[in-house]
Amino acid sequence: MVYVLSIGGNALDSEMKNIKLTINAIKKLHSRGGLIITHGNGPQVGELARVEHLSLSILTAQTEAEIGYAIKKEIENNTHIKTEVFLTEVLVSKKDKAFCNPTKPIGKYYSKSEAYGLSKKGLTLKKFEKGYRRVVPSPKPIEILNIESMKKLMKGRIMIAGGGGGIPLSKERGKIEFVEAVIDKDYTTSLIAEKLKAKRMFILTNVDGAYLDYGKKEERLIKDIKADEMLKYLKEGHFEEGSMKPKVEACIDFVKKNRGIAAIGNIKKADKVIKLEECTVIRP
Ligand code: ADP
Ligand code: MG
Question: Which pTM value belongs to this model?
Answer without folding.
Answer: 0.96
